[in-house]
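FAQ: What does the model actually see?

It sees only this:
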Amino acid sequence: MRVIDINLWRLCHCAGPPTECKVIIMRDNDCRIPGATLDFRRYSRDGKRYLEFDSTGCHCPVPMVNAMAGLQQSLGEGARLVMVNGFEPEGLYERIRGCFDWQVERLKDERVRITFTAIEGQAERLDFSNRGCKGG
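And it is asked to produce this:
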């Protein structure tokens, strides 16, 4: 049995963990989200709670599936969702428009960090089960 650090595993996660990996070490702030395929982490900053995941390098439908699972979980926890990705998820924006607001930060390595915040009284009406992706 081989033990692998969670950050190393994330590098190969989109293709699935290496078959020889049997145990994944999760840090205290790492968490599993129902319906997600990537690991998330929880943290607080400036009195606000966050859930964050990184789908950089992942292909459709991984970013959409994890964003929708994360948005549903963040709504239930009263947290904000942070998505780090290699591109802006335009299809996700269209799906959640009017239910969530978002801010985009461009990182030095050309990735984006998107912070999603639920719109009070609107986010609850989103169909979180619609996790399909058309790509792009």
